[in-house]
């Protein structure tokens, strides 16, 4: 019935409904009721006409909203287009900063110390003076260096002194004291520093080797070995207690 009243049926169904309405009084009355309701709605008696002032305010508000949305689209769209590339570029730049800056002086020195340690093991030149007596090792450096390194015997602590040698690090000759921990070799490099201020120990791990370094009383110390990190740290602590 609704489709017939609204004129939505095709020709065949429209003819069928018209024939049925002629024969069926209840449906015919229903059709008349639907038609009266439709005509009443279309007559406009149920509508309230808004004041002209209200219409003007609504149109003015709609105009402002349209202009604001248009301006927002103009400024927002380009930024939304370039925001993602800018963010990606920022991430790339931040990631490349360490590469662009290159390794620090401390990192380069650490590499040099490690190379000195490995070189001493490969070239079979671990000691120039082989002795567990610090009173033999320390005087050996006299006249060979422009400073006198502190030589500490840590045999009772499980790190026996086995000798010393000359090495070259940080663009200068340095003292290298050699200690053992079971079958592991510990190289302790010593040389003067330009700044006399002390610094706490720092540690690093490179290529399976552990490195500890610190500054005390105008001297810099670098300890390097493949011994376990905790054992090398114990060596450093025992050494510092006697310096």
For the termini, the CA-CA separation is 108 Å
At the first level of CATH, what is the class of the largest domain? Alpha Beta
> Secondary-structure element sequence?
HHHHHEHEEEEEEH
**How do the strands line up in the largest sheet?**
1-2-3-4-7-6-5
Number of E-state strands: 7
What's the alpha carbon Rg, rounded to whole Å? 46 Å
Q: Fill in the CATH topology of the largest domain.
A: Phosphorylase Kinase, domain 1
Q: Quaternary status of these chains? A: single chain
Beta fraction: 15-25%
Written account of the structure:
The protein is α+β, with helices and mostly antiparallel strands. It folds into two domains: 2-43, no CATH class; 105-242, MucB/RseB, C-terminal domain (Phosphorylase Kinase, domain 1, 2-Layer Sandwich). Helices cover 51% and strands 22% of the residues. It is built from seven helices and seven strands; from the N terminus they run αααααβαββββββα. The protein has a seven-stranded antiparallel beta sheet, with helices on both faces. Helix 2 crosses helix 3 (25-43).
């Amino acid at each position: 019935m609704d489709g017939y009243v609204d004129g939505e049926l095709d020709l065949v169904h429209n003819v069928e409904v018209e024939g049925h309405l002629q024969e069926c009084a209840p449906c015919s009355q229903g059709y008349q009721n639907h038609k009266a309701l439709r005509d009443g709605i279309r007559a406009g008696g149920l509508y309230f006409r808004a004041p002209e002032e209200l219409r003007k305010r609504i149109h003015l508000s709609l105009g402002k909203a349209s202009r604001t949305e248009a301006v927002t689209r103009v400024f927002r769209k380009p930024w939304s287009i370039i925001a993602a590339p800018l963010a990606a570029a920022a991430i790339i730049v931040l990631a490349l900063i360490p590469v662009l800056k290159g390794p620090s002086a401390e990192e380069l020195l650490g590499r040099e110390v490690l190379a000195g340690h490995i070189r001493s093991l490969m070239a079979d030149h671990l000691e120039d003076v082989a002795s567990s007596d610090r009173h033999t090792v320390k005087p050996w450096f006299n006249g060979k260096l422009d400073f006198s390194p502190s030589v500490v015997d840590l045999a009772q602590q499980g790190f026996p002194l086995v000798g010393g040698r000359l090495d070259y690090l940080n663009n200068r000759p340095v003292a290298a004291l050699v200690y053992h921990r079971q079958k592991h070799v510990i190289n302790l490099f010593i040389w003067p520093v330009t700044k006399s201020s002390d610094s706490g120990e720092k540690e690093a791990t490179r290529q399976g080797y552990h490195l500890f370094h610190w500054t005390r009383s105008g001297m810099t110390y670098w300890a390097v070995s493949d011994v376990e990190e905790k054992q090398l740290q114990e060596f450093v602590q025992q050494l510092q207690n006697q310096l």
